[in-house]
Amino acid sequence: MKKQLILEDGTVFIGEGFGSEANTIGEVVFNTGMTGYQEIISDPSYCGQIVTLTYPLVGNYGINRDDFESISPAIQGFIVKEAADLPSNWRNEKTLHDYFQIKKIPGIAGIDTRKLTRIIRQHGALKGAICGIEEDVDTVLEKLRASKLRNDQVKQVSTKTPYPSPGRGRRVVLVDFGMKHGILRELNKRDCDVIVVPYNTTAAEILNLSPDGVMLSNGPGDPKDVPEAITMINELLGKVPLFGICLGHQLFALACGANTEKMKFGHRGSNHPVKELSTGKVAITSQNHGYTVEEESIINTRLEVTHIALNDGTVEGLKHKDYPAFTVQYHPEASPGPEDANGLFEQFLTMIESEIQEGASK
Ligand SMILES: NC(=O)CC[C@H](N)C(=O)O
Description:
The protein is built from ten helices and 19 strands. The protein folds into two domains: 2-149, Glucose Oxidase, domain 1 (3-Layer(bba) Sandwich), CATH 3.50.30.20; 154-360, Class I glutamine amidotransferase (GATase) domain (Rossmann fold). Helix content is 25%, strand content 31%. The strands form three sheets. The chain has a ten-stranded mixed β-sheet, with helices on both faces. It binds glutamine.
């Protein structure tokens, strides 16, 4: 079934549809990872976006039961050069096509995704539509240009009610802004007694759970769309150790008086070099973000930049000068991607231990 991909700048690509036959509209973003498509598809931070992969062969090892980052994928659509019909892997359970049919996600294959990526890099983020070949391009373009991107993605993907993920270790309240399961896995691996709470939980409700530390998860959209979370973080600051990832990092920066801005085309992939300023050490990191903390806005705050991106110098990590709190823009839970940054979970737990020691000696 032929389908077309129409970008708001008027570019039209023709390809072959797979997965759901529905039409879709979203912000088109590119990911440069060579593997990890299942983790990408199921990362809730892509809610509202149509994702394209620069790597051309997608679906080769199928979809398995282990690699999901959420139960239900939140992406609007998927664009690939080639979608494998015959995956080969001992863990393979179904093809990309079958999975997308079940989850009602429209896909389009046969697209020159590197050309598409160049267009996005030149123009900056673009809205796009995947639709049937019979649709009139001008009509779709009109609809596309008039369409507004959603601003309630966190509400869509966050848990509606709190739930526990018990352990015998330190208690961590994990605020779910669209959490990747990898974060929960990393905390559970370290025996943390985790309670996952919705994005709009208040600081008082969180403190009532007697946390030893609070984690602020990743999540979709513009951090400024979730003002209630900014208030909550501001009220938690100094009362409990904090660790934030991606959207959690951006919300933390806003709560501390810094600013965030939309990037031209963002960072999405599993090969982004990040430098830790205190040691000069470089880690290869997994990333997925379209917003960033504005560096100049940090000057008037009590924040310190701890990490920067080597590709474009943007802020990749922050810590508070007065309180036990640090955050990173990249994904230390490493799914998909390298495990270079995994030590940050240890850092969080060490911070929790030293706060407990300090409390005991007072
Ligand atoms: N992965 C994330 O948490 C992404 C954060 C935010 N939605 C952004 O695009 O910048």
